[in-house]
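Deliverable D4.2, example record:
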Amino acid sequence: MGGADDAGRLSWSHAVASLLDIWTDVSGMMTADPRWVPNARIIPSISYHEAMELSHFGAKVIYPPTIQPVLAKKIPIRIKNTFSPNDPGTMISDEPEKNGSMIRGISSINHIALLSLEGSGMIGVPGFAKRLFEALSGAGVNVILITQGSSEHSICVGVDAANAELARTAVDTAFAAEIAFKKVDPLVVEMDLSIVALVGEQMKSHTGISGKMFGVMGRNGVNVRAIAQGSSEKNISAVVSTQDVRKAINVLHEEFFEKVNKQVNLFICGVGNVGSKLLMQLDQQRQFLSEQLRLQVRIVGLANSKQFVFSEEGVDPGKWKETLEKGEKGGIADFVQAIILRNLRNSVFVDVSASDAVAGVYQQLLEKSISVVACNKIACSSVYSHYRKLKDLAREYNASFLFETNVGAGLPVIGTLNDLLRSGDKVNRMEAVLSGTLNFVFNNYNATRPFADVVKQAQEEGYTEPDPRLDLGGTDVMRKIMILARESGQPLEMEQIANRSFMPATCMQGTVADFYREMANEES
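Output generated by the structure prediction step:
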């Protein structure tokens, strides 16, 4: 397309006309790359300067020099699709239509290296920037992005990664004397980076754009390595890790262009009694979540103890069994690694297992800004230092660590307790019946049938933990007491809770099958 654009540029530099049509293989400029952002849309109207900014940052619909001659004569350009001529396309003009959005589009450049020249000898000394750019220019290295702190201690520039070593040699040679006297450090080169750019001429008349940009990226664990913004405020650029660029563009597009529904990507581990009920509930509530809460909830990953499955389009919660049966073999470590590699925005890991191994991966997930919702009580009832660390990690990495169902089943007990504490109240005493299992068992046991049968019924109806001994032996109640105490601000440990179990010691050994057999023996 570059050759055609060049020909058009040469001919139009001397022409007088009212419109330039460029026919290409797409239906116009888009708000983002549709290969990465499925919800990207056509930009109906855009200014010359915005089009050049987007083209510079990777939107290859037009070649920037094409715009220059028509810009001088203020001749509008219309981008049309050769294969879909009825599509309206994009109109590029001096006075584009206002669409109510401050941002016209989001674009990116990959294969970026960030060069940092640093040193205390630079502070207050003129000429360092000039010498840096002369060294790069002399080596034929084009500078894509520039940023400098007000302390004058460092200058960062972004260049094509292919020229990184050439730039290193040129700069270190130019500053050899300063490096030798330790006034300047050798050039620092960071690879595997990309630039993400917000483009829009209306940004200059609105406050808070950069705050929204960096806020939404931060909440999704996208670390920004460098920032650049010109005084014209048509463009805000951020340097991020290449592995995060897709996520960054998606969260920015969702923040600035997708005002209808927020997409939440779920990874569910556990499909037993509770897990299957959750999937059924998600299936039933899809329309409500979309219409009332503006949430598009996708089950991207689903796992049991032996296998897992992923679907970028989302697993149908009404057909999860058939889908999971076709999944690949693997354990929780494989599942978590695959979640992290996908690096999706608004990711939530849901643990509806009772597994120590699954509870053991929370830290790894939170450190990647993946929120964790746990039905599993094991993590929050582990040693206090681990519980505290998980809470701190969630705060540090802008993720949520929620475990409301650890106590009170579906009742908002923990949430209410947190609200009381946030409002300044102090918890002096709690009284509670904390075991639905024990309630069920003793309400249904009347000596007309074996106690073991009543417990078995409770397990089959989903009242007990997968191992009923945790309920009957008091462990589950102890965990709930400890979680409530910790959420009230008390660093309680399990050994500080007194428990007098009514179950014979012989019933608490061996397997679950042994447990039922021993109960029958004890009762006989």
